[in-house]
Amino acid sequence: MTLGGLALFFVRLLAGTGVFLVGVHLLTANIEQLATGKLKELFGKTADKRLVNVGVGAAATALIQSSGVTTVLIVGFVNVGVMNLYQAAAMIMGANIGTTVTAQIAALSAFPITTYIQVLVFVGIMLSMIGKEDTKKKLGLLLAGLGLIFIGLALMSDAMKADRDAIQSLFTMVRDPLLLFFIGIFLTALVQSSSATTSIIIAMSVAGLTVGTGGNEVLYIILGTNIGSCVTALMSSFTAGANARRASFIHLMFNTLGSGIFFLVLAFWPGFMTCTFGRWFSETATQIAMFHTFFNVTCTVLFLPLCGWFVRVSERLIREREVREEPQETYLDERMLASTSLAISQLEKEMVRLSDTAMEAFRTGYRSFQDRDKELIAPTQKLIDRAGGVEQAVVNYLIRLAAQSKLSDERDISRLHGSLADIMRIAEIADNLTKYTRASVDRNLDFSQSVRQELDGMTQRVEELYGLTRRVMVEKDAGLLGEVDRVENDVDTLRKRLIESHIERLNQGACSAASSGVFINLVSNLERLGDHLTYIAHSTVE
Fold this sequence. Notes:
Distance between the termini: 66 Å
Structural class: mainly alpha
Radius of gyration: 31 Å
């Protein structure tokens, strides 16, 4: 092959690979968008049952079509404390099974019928152009992605067929198992996708090319791709906590041990491919895809009972830093941005945490007022500042999420922006309470015991309202809104009654006029707090 011919071959091969990867991206991105909430439900089913976690990992990867992305998400969940290492280990094993779906799709390119599937690109693009509903547009892009996958595979196969004899002579020379193994690792680490590497190998087989003698040699590359696929998760865990690094290390251990065992089996059984998959399936592409699935399922069956061992080894090898890491205090992890629905789920959890902080500031501020204790102003302000820091982090996260989200997600993002503003009003009310404390102490304002009891009663109703609102935020139960509205009406009624009682006391000379401003403002702030909590509850589920 001349230098010009070699250059042309690589241009065609890279073009086909590019079309294939664009197809995979369109397919997976729109599957995830159409399945909005499905991933959230899947990851929400994590439990201590290992088989359940294997199924979750496999199903999530089948949706996303990337074990690397799934593992990055798992590392993110471990990093924020949503998932423990035992759950993560089983889920990672499932993710390896889920990623074999891409290879099975690619293997279909060996059959003539897939030529007609390529017309889905036209059908899908037309549907996305003329479709008015967002769902139809996504479905159209999904179909277009599926068609592009097969066009990309066809382009890769055609590029190899054009100079098959020259390429075959080169591939025939490569027989060393270790070299082939490291080629698989290197290529997968380079493109950060085992699916892409495996699909290129399958495209080669469709073009009639064989690696080495056509026996086990191609399988060594497949084994290498499983180790190379760990690079994405390892890179994402560098800046994470110890448990997140352990999760990515478990992924590496699992894939390395599995590949090592199969490497030895293939080395001591040279006729493995011929005696098994070569006999069971006529097409070489199908044989490779089936081996890929068999390898990952077998490794999961072998290693699933050893999840505890993997966790203990990772904990022994990856120690806590000398300065012990503080517990993760945020649900916002950049890894979650890979899935809009999961990122929104994490944002919702962070909003609950923020509302807890804002309400704690309110409680501390109210206690400072009731106890006439200026010493509690500083702790209140510290909680308000903490809430402000969380608010800024949420805003930044929302901006990044909005930049990559689809139209269907804009409603959820807008809802979160609105709820964020209402939650921060709680912190502002807490700040107002510190001002009332200063005014009461500095101006020696006095409130009767009956007034304090009335304020306590109204505050208790606000606390009841917050309890209901928090349940709505966590449980997404619209059935609680009636109770929320009832308690909020009670708060409004109490405000009116307390102000009327205060005016009556003023007229009777039983209360100081100097305290009126503070009292009326305080009662109004409690009523406003009830309004904001009600807005948060309604915006969560409506």
